[in-house]
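Report of the visiting student (M.T.), summer placement. My assignment was to run the structure pipeline on a short list of targets and document each run. The first record concerns Putative RNA polymerase ECF-type sigma factor.
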Amino acid sequence: MTDTDAAITRAHHDEWARVVAALTGRFGDLDIAEDAAAEAFAMAVARWPSDGIPPNPGAWLTTTAHRKAIDRIRRENKRDDKHQQAFMIHDNSADPPDVIDDDRLRLLFTCAHPALSVDARVALTLRMIGGLTVREISRALLVSESATARRITRAKTKIAAARIPYRVPTAADLPVRVDGVLAVLYLIFNEGYLATGPDTDPIRRDLTTEAVRLIRLVHELLPDDGEVAGLLALMLLIDARRSTRVSADGELVPLADQDRGRWDRRMIDEGHALVRELLAAGFPPGRYQILAAINAVHTSAPDVRDTDWAQVVALYDLLVRVDPSPIVELNRAVAVAELDGPEVALGIVDRLDLNGYHAFHATRADLLRRLGRTTEARDAYNTAIDLAGNTAEVTHLTRRRNQLTSPPPRPDAPA
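After the run finished, the structure tokens were exported:
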């Protein structure tokens, strides 16, 4: 990859959401904003190799995208209609004076409006805020690319037709809107934490950093919301381990094998403080608070052998009651394997309907390996490798599979 290619990739990671948000605020039309941003990045690909990388790539992209948007409006000969629509959608007049002024936060709340279906909110926000491709979103949501594209198109159409405003909602509206915002931010963070696409970096720091930045802003808006604080704590405790999650050879490093001395203690301390505050406040336990508590247990142990697995399993038991899902059960089984053994955990895993999920097969493979069922473990690893999109994870699973020893031949088997 050339320096220019690297600069364009970095600019897309860093600037996509900012450019789309700025154009949405200016023109009030998500289609215009997205198309103009895409054209600006295409022009960067064409011009930067010969003209050189601009001193301020973000400003160059925003200015170029703005011009592209104006050109499109003029071509369509609907300038007055578009400007009127922009005024109605943007409409900052309803914003209270103390609302945080952040274009990307405004865009986030627009994409997560309750008038949209949950699936549409998630897909649209991953596209507009996260800058993910339709393929990446499809892998993250475990749906087809055509279904993802339809969700995004329908969501943008609904926003325009319903004149959903481009603003942070008033204080009275926030509690209704926040659940959808948290779900989307968690998915954006997860995509950065373990990217699903085979052609992207295994860990996308731009997405995790942006998700943390946005959840901090939401926490400022709703300082007394336990789930908001819980998600902030969860992100901090996970992101603190980022530098240890991929080896120099590009292989995913499991939690048990990470160098805990390299974890970011500042982020861990902040996450632990938030978890303690949540416990002291006595909030009703919610999904993100429980996940944060689980990660607090993991990050409190100086060595994996010091992990309080009984507490981890107890927290997962609570999470199963609060947020029942097969994926929660799968993660609980991983902890059960440490407390009660791999055979008990495998019995839990084999009851789950997650055949299309790579982590299901990776977990089965590890449990079968520990039980000495080598042939079955190899088959499970192969399926996990076929389904996994993250290059670092594929490298790790391939090495684990290749380390399996063949079972000894039966005494009656032919030579």
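The chain has 19 helices and no strands. Residues 240-324 form one domain. I thank the supervising group for their guidance throughout the placement.
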